């Protein structure tokens, strides 16, 4: 029992890490019986979170882990604003629509008018996962309109590579669409136009092309895929639309490769999703989906409610969500502009390419993607080393780095790779430290081989 002087309040001398925590452990699986001092509650949770890895050293994730302090302050000020209450928070709603307009303009959407923000057809989402679901649903409904009432007797299918993010598998399962996965090759990790043409038919609702795959960061040949589908349709074959999954590359390619045609400049591209919380440089979770024009968003997918005040159209899967992510994205758009995004993306690309060159020159690794497409470096061990990529990943964790190792998708399952996502916050200095630690890791494993294996495979990190 703790004793104190009668004239001194007990809370004034309560030790930080004894007292209640020591005598009565905090329940982990049920609500505690009594309330807790707010500072103590903060301390317990803060300390447990120290057991997480450092987000800045997490090179597995594409998700932004650093923003300007001013952005953090703005986002903290708008945590309590519900994005769906557009009538109650008109300024936040206007900011959301401005962001949609900026994204649609960046991707060269049609019929945009400077005096009409509603001319941009799209919406902000919790992330690209929700955006993918909305894009897929629009494809399915448009297909139903094309085939007429007979759609009830058909099975719609979606053509995509086995390298797609798992959300596409979820979409197909949740909404009764047959997924047609195109396999990779031992030395090819993107789909080809020839594969696409061979896979599509009258029941294909669309083709998914990826701008920056999560496995290697490579860009799929969107322009060539569209050209092959144009030729197929001109010859009497099915007329199949294309959706571009630009979750990873949508905020990189327009600034690093502005002349590359992958977006609405290609008439066959009808919709695009992008993650603001990846290279949009905003904390999670914010994404966008935009359509070429209003014709490609079926009216049946839009709901209208008035019980929040005012008539409000909504076509998201989620309803209530905080407005702070949209505010953070808007801050980045104003703060950086096109020139700022170009500077940031080129700097990240330079860092990625420097790292890839160092890895290749070391003789220990074969580089698969060098960071020139988007700032992602994927690489594998060169030759017979007596240990695996999973061992290198495990060894790097002893230095604090989280560098994922995983096997490639269907068609290249025997290939294991390591991947480094270069994000803002991974400075050139940190990249040099990372390379030094990679070399220390392989030196250690060279001494241990062949008994130095860590055989537990890690999950694939999005």
UniProtKB/TrEMBL annotation:
CDD domains to which the protein is assigned, alphabetical: DOPA_deC_like
GO molecular function, one term: glutamate decarboxylase activity
EC number: 4.1.1.15
Cofactor: pyridoxal 5'-phosphate
Catalytic EC class: lyase
InterPro entries xrefs: Glutamate_decarboxylase, PyrdxlP-dep_de-COase, PyrdxlP-dep_Trfase, PyrdxlP-dep_Trfase_major
Residues that bear N6-(pyridoxal phosphate)lysine: 278
Catalysis performed (reactions): L-glutamate + H(+) = 4-aminobutanoate + CO2
Any one of the GO CC terms: cytosol
Keywords assigned: Decarboxylase, Lyase, Pyridoxal phosphate
Keyword Plastid applies: no
A single BP term in Gene Ontology: L-glutamate catabolic process
Recorded family membership: Belongs to the group II decarboxylase family.
Protein name: Glutamate decarboxylase
Organism: Mycolicibacter nonchromogenicus (Mycobacterium nonchromogenicum)
Taxonomic lineage from the root: Bacteria, Bacillati, Actinomycetota, Actinomycetes, Mycobacteriales
């Amino acid at each position: 029992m703790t004793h104190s002087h009668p004239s001194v309040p007990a809370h004034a001398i309560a030790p930080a890490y004894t007292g209640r925590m020591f005598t009565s452990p905090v329940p982990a699986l049920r609500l505690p019986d009594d309330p807790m001092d707010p500072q103590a509650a903060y301390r317990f949770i803060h300390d447990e979170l120290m057991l997480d890895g450092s987000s800045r050293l997490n090179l597995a994730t594409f998700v932004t882990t650093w923003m300007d302090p001013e952005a953090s302050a703005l986002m903290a000020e708008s945590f309590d604003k519900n994005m769906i209450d557009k009538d109650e928070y008109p300024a936040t709603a206007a900011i959301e629509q401005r962001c949609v307009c900026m994204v649609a303009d960046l991707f060269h959407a049609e019929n945009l008018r400077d005096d009409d923000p509603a001319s941009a057809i799209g919406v902000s989402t919790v992330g690209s996962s929700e955006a993918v679901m909305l894009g897929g649903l629009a494809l399915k409904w448009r297909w139903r309109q094309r085939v007429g009432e007979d759609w009830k007797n058909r099975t719609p299918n979606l053509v995509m590579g086995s390298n797609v993010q798992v959300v596409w598998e979820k979409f197909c399962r949740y909404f009764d669409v047959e997924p047609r996965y195109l396999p990779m090759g031992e030395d090819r990790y993107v789909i080809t136009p020839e594969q696409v043409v061979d896979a599509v038919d009258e029941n294909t609702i669309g083709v998914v092309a990826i701008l920056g795959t999560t496995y290697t960061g490579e860009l799929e040949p969107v322009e060539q895929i569209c050209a092959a589908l144009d030729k197929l349709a001109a010859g009497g074959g099915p007329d199949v639309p294309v959706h571009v999954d630009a979750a990873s590359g949508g905020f990189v390619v327009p600034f690093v490769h502005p002349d590359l045609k992958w977006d609405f400049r290609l008439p066959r591209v009808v919709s695009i999703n992008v993650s603001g919380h990846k290279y949009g440089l905003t904390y999670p979770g914010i994404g966008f989906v935009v359509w070429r024009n209003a014709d490609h968003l079926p009216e049946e997918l839009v709901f209208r409610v008035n019980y929040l005040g005012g008539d409000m159209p909504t076509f998201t899967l989620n309803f209530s969500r905080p407005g702070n992510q949209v505010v953070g994205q808007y801050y980045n758009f104003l703060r950086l502009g096109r020139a700022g995004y170009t500077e940031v993306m080129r700097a990240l690309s330079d860092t990625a390419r420097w790292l890839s060159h160092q890895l290749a020159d070391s003789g220990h690794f074969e580089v698969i993607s060098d960071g020139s497409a988007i700032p992602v470096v994927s690489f594998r061990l060169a030759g017979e080393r007596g240990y695996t990529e999973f061992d290198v990943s495990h060894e790097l964790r002893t230095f604090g780095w989280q560098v994922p190792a995983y096997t490639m998708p269907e068609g290249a399952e025997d290939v294991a790779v390591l991947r480094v996502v270069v994000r803002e916050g991974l400075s050139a200095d940190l990249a040099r430290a990372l390379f030094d630690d990679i070399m220390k890791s392989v030196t250690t494993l060279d001494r241990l081989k062949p008994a130095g294996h860590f055989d537990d495979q890690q999950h694939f990190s999005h």
